[in-house]
Amino acid sequence: MSQTSVQKFIKQFKLFENDQIQQTQLQHRYALVEAFGIKEGMKVLEIGCGQGDTTVVLADTVGESGHVTAIDIAPPDYGAPFTLGEAHERINQSELGARIDFHLETDFLEMNSDKQYDAVVLSHCSWYFHDPAQLLAYFKRIRSISKMLCFAEWDMQFEKITQRGHFCAASILALYSQFTANDGNIQNLFGKSEIGKMIEDAGMKVDLEVRVDAHFLQDGQWEIDYAREVSKEFAAAAVRIQTLIQNYADMLDVEGKNESLDSFVIVAK
Fold first, then answer.
1. SS3 for the chain, per residue?
2. Looking at the domain assignment, is residue 130 inside a domain?
3. What domain range is 66 assigned to?
4. Which of 1, 51, 70, 161 is placed for a possible disulfide with 46 were both Cys, Cβ 3.0 to 4.6 Å?
5. What is the pTM of this model?
6. Cα(89)–Cα(97) distance, rounded to whole angstroms?
7. Whole-angstrom Cα distance, residue 68 to residue 56?
8. Is residue 187 in a domain?
9. Does 9 reside within a domain?
10. Structural domain tally of the chain?
11. What is the CATH number of the domain that holds 153?
């Protein structure tokens, strides 16, 4: 179904027509949004929208009668090969632009708005959080503005050996953030059980938990390539850490075939 949705999306909105990578990403986003239970006419707040990969699918799903407010703490010049500002401008010029309001350099906890939303989405952005307490604070505020939280992240509980490389890469990059101050996209490896506990601590209850196939995405290989690069920078770390990193680095490749981790989805109310 998600492949068909992608083709309909390209035909209707004239976006990503010659971008195979983006089309593959869209396929997964449609699967996530379907799992979230987003419906036509909904008013949605997306936190951590990035370049808008999930945003455009949300906007397509809610239709002309719905709306998506998409925020990100990053500045407009962040990101590659297109900056966030460039990616958002491209989307705004399409038919979807009327359904979306992008707000960059925006901290959710500092937003001066009491507006209520049908759903709040955090999709593949939690690993950017430097502090678990901050993510918990987000969940607590979400409860005050919406009756539905839709959350997605990589599932570290991999099921196939071909996903091991992505697991090891994520582990290396999380340790790298511990030993080296950086703004990389992996600061904390929040998993299902920890997210579930945070949701409960915020006063919500998990209504749905499901795994969504993501093995075909390019992200796993991207993370593996970056992890291989930064693994050389642990020379100043304790010997025990160096040994651990080397073991992870040795497991990055599985007979030349690497696949991405799947995603887990949690819907809480």
1. CHHHHHHHHHHHHCCCCCCHHHHHHHHHHHHHHHHHCCCCCCEEEEECCCCCHHHHHHHHHHCCCCEEEEECCCCCCCCCCCCHHHHHHHHHCCHHHHHEEEECCCCHHHCCCCCCECEEEEECCHHHCCCHHHHHHHHHHHHHHECCEEEEEECCCCCCHHHHHHHHHHHHHHHHHHHCCCCCCCCCCCCHHHHHHHHHHCCCCEEEEEEECCCCCCHHHHHHHHHHHHHHHHCCCCHHHHHHHHHHHHCCCCCCCCCCCCEEEEEEC
2. yes
3. 2-161+182-219+260-268
4. 70
5. 0.95
6. 9
7. 9
8. yes
9. yes
10. 1
11. 3.40.50.150
In the block, which residue shows the tokens 């990053």? Answer: 74
Query: What gap in Å lies between CA 231 and CA 126, rounded to an integer?
Result: 23
Q: Residue 238 is encoded by which pair of tokens?
A: 């304790």
Q: Take residue 193 and report the two structure tokens written for it.
A: 């059980």
Q: 150-186: per-residue pLDDT in tens?
A: 999 999 999 999 999 999 999 999 999 988 777 778 9
Pairing of the two strands 206-212 and 263-268: antiparallel
Cα separation values, 230 from 50, 91, 184, Å: 23, 33, 11
Confidence at residue 146, expressed as pLDDT on a 0 to 100 scale = 97
The two three-digit tokens of residue 21, written as one number? 């990578």
CB of 55 closer than 8 Å to CB of 46: yes
pLDDT in tens, 91-145: 999 999 999 999 999 999 999 878 999 999 999 999 999 999 999 999 999 999 9
> Distance from first CA to last CA of the chain, Å, rounded?
27
